[in-house]
Description:
With 54 residues, the protein is mostly helical. It has one domain. Helices cover 93% and strands 0% of the residues.
Amino acid sequence: MSSSDQDRQRNREIAENEANRQVIGDIRVSVWAVAVSIVAGVVVFGIAWAWLNR
């Protein structure tokens, strides 16, 4: 294998690792967004419920 081929292979591996890291980061952000939305929804529901049952 020539140096050029080794560089290409190394660059592919780096790109693949970076893509995997990006996917994990995206999933982590999505989980946080869903959790915050659920908490906000529960708070709004609680306020509406209390206001309607006063």
